[in-house]
Records
---
Amino acid sequence: MAIPSIGIITGPTGVGKTELALSASEFLNAEIVNADSMQIYRYMDVGTAKPTVDERKRVPHHLIDVRDPDETCDASTYRRMADEAIRRILEKGKRALLVGGTGLYIKALLHGLFPVPPKSATVRARLKDEANRKGLDELHRRLLNVDPLAAQRIHPRDRVRIVRALEVYETTKTPISRLQAGHRFQESSYRVAYCVLSRPKPELYARIENRTDQMLAEGLVEEVKKLKSMGYGADLKSMQSIGYRHVARYLENEWSFEEATRLLKRDTRRYAKRQLTWFQSVDEARWFHPDDPKELLEHLMRFFEAEDG
């Protein structure tokens, strides 16, 4: 059986993926499969820079608004959904473009997943209790001692991943980062044109500053208020994401609006830097500037025509 071919348009937050992906999809007769871990959630539109209703009318999008904020969607679940979405697109005789900046989701789709070490309900329950009693900062400091690499990768407020990393260490006596580094991922399930969008850092950071201000002007605070009124608490993984946790702490009077805005911009810049580091490790990636779409479109067209040919 022939290996399916897909295009990928990815890059750091704020780089300008959405408009370019729409143009590419129209040019290539393609549909878009979302690869942003936050855009899968319903009711979270402003803070995730989700494509608008009009943009989704221009080009069909898949895997947007498929989970409620209190539901989880790990990389394994995403891989199953994305495989199915791509299959449906290709069966219609159209091309598929994977669009979004969650590198782990893209890696899971292409190369499979790191085998999950056995779980211990007892250890996990104890760690969750300690997180409630002592706070996440204490658990993150403990993780820093036993697995510094994992601690650097995991945000200090990411309860799920901190608890899981400590659980793995306690049950296997091996840091999860070492287990992940030793795992050899499978060959890609797809032939891919892996396109990464990038800008010079001053240009990217200026866009992030402007987009943050735009999100706040367009109602991010009101969106978080509505989510809280619907019963979606600040402890949910989805509500711990960039933007939502910052506004939640402002609403809880932990930070002033100015401080929340400053930290939101800082943390978004840091996230973009981590994304760039991730994509720099992708051997098959080819890099493009979003303001020169002609080169990207021609590259994708040559790729698909060669695969079709």
Note: The chain has 14 helices and six strands.
---
Amino acid sequence: MKTEEIIIKIIGKLNLLYDDKINQQEIRLILEEVLYNYNIKPKEFALVPRNNMQDMMMLFLTSKKIEGASDVTIKNYGLNLSKLAYDIQKNVENITTMDIRIHLANYAKTGVKNSTIATRTDILRSFFSWLKTEEYITRNPLERIKNIKVEETTREPLTQEEFEILSNGAKTLRQKALLHTFYATGCRLNEVVCMNISDINWDKMQLTVLGKGNKERIVYLNARAKIFIQKYLKSRDDDCEALFVTQRKPIKRLGNRAIQREIKQIKEQSGLKRNVYPHLLRHTYSSTLLSRGASISSISKMLGHKNLEVTSRYAKTTDYNIEYEYRKYMVG
């Protein structure tokens, strides 16, 4: 058993025990120093080796956690890899390209979209690439698997009129604060879930959020969002640190599903005849900024994107945007 494997397992167990309150880097350095001169070999419990897929999954997910992957990402990776482990009951070093092809073909037969199959393929590719880099396998069965072709679909953002109709459908203070927080900040669903009251700088109308890869960034509140949030907070009599909480006791942080249901409820109350969900509000945020003259690079930073290509799929360019740019720069 490699020293790195031992270190990852120890850190993984400590994370579960202490709820991520440990300094992973310090513990890693200490373990590397202590174990440097030791050659550790596993104790054999059985003559026939058992399937090592679950162990490899745990090591991989722990490694991703150490690298800063979000809890949502870790959960998604775990679910997809568990399906593979159930379908192909082999040691990782014995899994072939044909095994993967049959697994993906069976998954496609369930009627899922190409984009969903592509996501699973990417996760498997990441997993087996990690196994090869860490020298648990000598051959990556995904190397000959081609990327799934996915048709790019553009989500049509809400118009200003549609958003006002939606806003009128928000009846409770929590609904008003929640809807306008999404619209004003352009945050991801999980970022809104994790918001705390202490993250808000009321004077600067700013919010510090923890995005993908545990990277902090500043987002901004507009006047309406600030007013609705303050009214909502004044209506509460709990001491929970979360910005959005449940209505029934025990009071706790509002989760992903609960927020999704709340947005759906607002949409139904408004009478708007189209589907509305948190990520559409993020698209609406970016397209609204673009239509009002914000640069794509600024929008990219506000959304927490790593590159402009991702942002360009969010910020829909309209004829109005094109005319705005022409009138702005082509004078005379």
Note: Residues 45-49 have pLDDT under 50 and may be disordered.
